[in-house]
Amino acid sequence: xxxxxxxxxxxxxxxxxxxxxxxxxxxxxxxxxxxxxxxxxxxxxxxxxxxxxxxxxxxxxxxxxxxxxxxxxxxxxxxxxxxxxxxxxxxxxxxxxxxxxxxxxxxxxxxxxxxxxxxxxxxxxxxxxxxxxxxxxxxxxxxxxxxxxxxxxxxxxxxxxxxxxxxxxxxxxxxxxxxxxxxxxxxxxxxxxxxxxxxxxxxxxxxxxxxxxxxxxxxxxxxxxxxxxxxxxxxxxxxxxxxxxxxxxxxxxxxxxxxxxxxxxxxxxxxxxxxxxxxxxxxxxxxxxxxxxxxxxxxxxxxxxxxxxxxxxxxxxxxxxxxxxxxxxxxxxxxxxxxxxxxxxxxxxx
Amino acid sequence: xxxxxxxxxxxxxxxxxxxxxxxxxxxxxxxxxxxxxxxxxxxxxxxxxxxxxxxxxxxxxxxxxxxxxxxxxxxxxxxxxxxxxxxxxxxxxxxxxxxxxxxxxxxxxxxxxxxxxxxxxxxxxxxxxxxxxxxxxxxxxxxxxxxxxxxxxxxxxxxxxxxxxxxxxxxxxxxxxxxxxxxxxxxxxxxxxxxxxxxxxxxxxxxxxxxxxxxxxxxxxxxxxxxxxxxxxxxxxxxxxxxxxxxxxxxxxxxxxxxxxxxxxxxxxxxxxxxxxxxxxxxxxxxxxxxxxxxxxxxxxxxxxxxxxxxxxxxxxxxxxxxxxxxxxxxxxxxxxxxxxxxxxxxxxxxxxxxxxxxxxxxxxxxxxxxxxxxxxxxxxxxxxxxxxxxxxxxxxxxxxxxxxxxxxxxxxxxxxxxxxxxxxxxxxxxxxxxxxxxxxxxxxxxxxxxxxxxxxxxxxxxxxxxxxxxxxxxxxxxxxxxxxxxxxxxxxxxxxxxxxxxxxxxxxxxxxxxxxxxxxxxxxxxxxxxxxxxxxxxxxxxxxxxxxxxxxxxxxxxxxxxxxxxxxxxxxxxxxxxxxxxxxxxxxxxxxxxxxxxxxxxxxxxxxxxxxxxxxxxxxxxxxxxxxxxxxxxxxxxxxxxxxxxxxxxxxxxxxxxxxxxxxxxxxxxxxxxxxxxxxxxxxxxxxxxxxxxxxxxxxxxxxxxxxxxxxxxxxxxxxxxxxxxxxxxxxxxxxxxxxxxxxxxxxxxxxxxxxxxxxxxxxxxxxxxxxxxxxxxxxxxxxxxxxxxxx
Lengths: 350, 793
Hints:
The complex is a heterodimer of chains A (350) and B (793).
Chain A: H1 2-17, H2 22-33, H3 38-45, H4 51-91, E1 101-102, H5 109-123, E2 127-128, E3 134-136, H6 137-140, E4 165-167, H7 173-181, E5 188-197, E6 209-219, H8 224-239, E7 245-252, E8 255-264, E9 281-290, H9 292-297, E10 306-312, H10 314-322, H11 329-332, H12 335-338
Parallel strand pairs in A: 2-5
Antiparallel strand pairs in A: 3-4, 5-6, 6-10, 7-8, 8-9, 9-10
Helix pairs in contact in A: 1-4, 2-4, 5-8, 5-10
Chain B: E1 2-4, H1 5-8, H2 19-27, E2 32-38, E3 46-55, E4 63-68, E5 73-78, E6 87-93, E7 97-98, E8 101-102, E9 106-108, E10 111-113, E11 115-117, H3 132-136, E12 140-141, H4 151-155, E13 160-165, H5 176-187, E14 200-204, H6 205-208, E15 210-213, E16 218-227, H7 236-244, H8 252-264, E17 268-272, E18 279-284, E19 290-292, E20 298-300, E21 306-309, E22 314-317, E23 321-322, E24 335-342, H9 344-353, H10 358-365, H11 372-387, E25 390-393, E26 396-399, E27 406-411, H12 412-419, H13 425-435, E28 438-442, E29 445-450, H14 460-471, H15 492-506, E30 510-511, E31 517-518, E32 545-546, H16 551-562, E33 569-581, E34 584-596, E35 598-601, E36 609-610, H17 613-626, E37 633-636, E38 644-654, E39 657-665, E40 675-680, H18 681-685, E41 703-712, H19 717-728, E42 732-741, E43 750-759, H20 768-786, E44 789-790
Parallel strand pairs in B: 14-25, 15-18, 30-33
Antiparallel strand pairs in B: 1-13, 2-13, 3-4, 3-6, 4-5, 6-11, 6-12, 7-8, 9-10, 16-24, 16-25, 16-26, 17-24, 18-21, 19-20, 21-22, 22-23, 27-29, 28-29, 31-32, 33-34, 34-40, 35-36, 37-38, 38-39, 39-40, 41-43, 41-44, 42-43
């Protein structure tokens, strides 16, 4: 008996070796473990044995059954794995073929610059306020210390609609509107982004429509040092953390002192290159201390309050920052131009 | 303002400073410059002496010259008609530079030539200064020229010019003397003013002429007569300085008037006295009065023009242009000199419509009344010296000007509190001295006298700016204001714009920005008619009115890109539209988009997602849901926009408020399939949005049932859905269309729409029976109300 069992065990092991598929395995399982299989046959032979022998042989037989089952399970696992692998092999794709193109949307580069500046100022406690583009001469000029006939009006040739209404030539009127609207005459911290218009023929450096961001801070003891500190923040934010800022005196009717602001060249770091025309500095904005006539005209007592104001041109910033050589690109909207800006900016933040 | 180095040196000593440094220092005093350039571009020219000059045998015009250059004698070939031996000439030896290039040794008609003998025209002066003589032949130098010396120096052409771009407030810098004061303040140097000496005749001016000023727009009018002038060429220094200053020399008399204007900043006008008469009246022009100006044009004057008259008719447009009749001519003998100040604003209006000249631009910015008489006398002096004129005594005079210094009181504390610096009392006092501002100090307060030449310094802040500029703004150290901490905000409108931009970008659309000014023909398109905002004097027909819809501009962008072979275009813009409503100017914020071509591209798998109405509708729904309008918006076909395809457009409604539209652009406008949409953000801003609240996730299973109806083609899915919703009641939680069929299996005017209905109850599992009941009811209601037939599977 024992020999028979041993021989059967060997036979099963041998036949499992040549099994190639789960189906063959199943057939083999029926052959050996099925009702008419040899193991069952041996079991049925048990009746003829003595109790002693039954006990011993039963144990052997049980072991055979368990062992056979385990063998079959192991083989099944291996086979299944092989079959799956084969299936995966046939499913293999060429991952180098092109993807489904999801067209990438993007924000206009001017909006990118404006939002960057807005976010900076919001983080410093400024409010973003807006004003009308169709503006009164009163706010665009007169309240800004530019009475009718003032020669400085020449620098801002305007699109008039009527004698008293025009397309604003600057975002500065929002300064005056903000001060006017503040009935309690409390301190102010605002920036005013928006579109402005001037009678310029469109060319590589001029546009009859462009954008500006005006900044205004009014309070007690506001001075030039605060202006410089604030502008340093803008320069660093827009052009990199090691930028420096310098003042050059200038003239704007609504500020006194008036200052042009240069930032140290972000390309060469100040030694001189083609971007800064060899000077190491790039002019980026105009600024100054709010003229007492402007404060007074808007109901603020210039003896008590001082303020600073600045105006920055997002077109100029974007042109410098991204190396754009023609202002018309911003308004032509060639999709190949816009595509340059449909991604996030590399970040300096740690 | 062009500042000649040779000119300024008479008023301030700059001999030890490079002119480039002066220019750069001036920038930090607020005076930017455009360029710094030599008067002549030529370099390395020397005075040569032609010792021998023989005709070249093989040339009809060349001469072979032996030219003594001081340290050597060289052979130079010259083709000029006026070349002769024994004369001094300008030589560009080998190595010298002319505007045309560097001079090299050359062979001309077989003979060696070691340089070039030059005409004035070859030196690189601006062509407007050249006379016929300058271009005709070589220039013969005077006997006093030293052989071998720098020829440009001899000619007085070795000048350098800084071309300043002055700010509008610095009227005082439109004069050499003003420039001298400014540079003097920067370098702490004294200004040398000309001393004027006149040899007047006994004849008194006031016996010859009378003056009447009948307008407030002339604050000072002074006149003097110079007799028997001899009109000829100006001396070299006057001509050269005028050229360096950008003014073409004419003759000694005209040149002197310009020269004095440059010196003092006071424009002068010279009349031919003999054609002027004996009485001057200054007044405003009369309605339709005419005057022939010296450019030969007859001009009809406006009542805002100030005129000089001979008491009968206008003889000059004050401050802008003289009259032809009284112009200085070659035979002019006696001159009446006008030195006056006119109202800047009136001059500005007149010059704007006629001519902006050196004189008018000075008047527009303002003139120092203390210099009017000085300039008048200076002109007389120069006419005496360089035109042999005889100056009559006395001055014809009308003067209402205030020549007192302006007094400004300013505390040290105020200075430092504006500048944010720590300037000491001594430093301030020193700066005021440098500026030439007399002052007294009481405690820590300065009582400053600002001279009349500084028309731009009137209040404390102006003075502080002057102090800051001399002290140096680079000394300001940046700090941030210590104001109370508060949060920064942006408006609801700004936030909405940002939310929309971010969403649409995420959905693959690109933001564009286009011009607000459009042509008249674009005005009526894509919107309900409003009164347009029109420019008073537009620059072109294309930019004439303020737009009332963003869509025509988006179509331009579309066409621009299509023309460049870019076919997949998904763009949007947020911006204002403008109109007049009851005489008020209105600006409404709009969102518009344009989509055309392929949205998702996968050609090799044949799975391109083409942009069609439903895709654009999906974009809008996605956006509206993102903005918080889930279950509040609808698309209907009321009030469709005429410029859209009538069968492929819809109105967008939120809570019964029409807020926009969507549709395919009418094929008569765009042949290809182009879809556009517009949302009125101004209206959306007025709508309330509920705050986010967590809704319990359903705990009990839902039941799904499918149903298909055959209906007439005219029936909209929305009508069916509304009935389903109504009959389905509370337990019907979702309706989806999963099939639409038109074809042979249904009637000719029919279509089949299949819906997947979802039923659920948040509190329990639904039983089959109740769902079936509702389902049956839905079928019954749809079939009876819409004449629909239940489609069997």
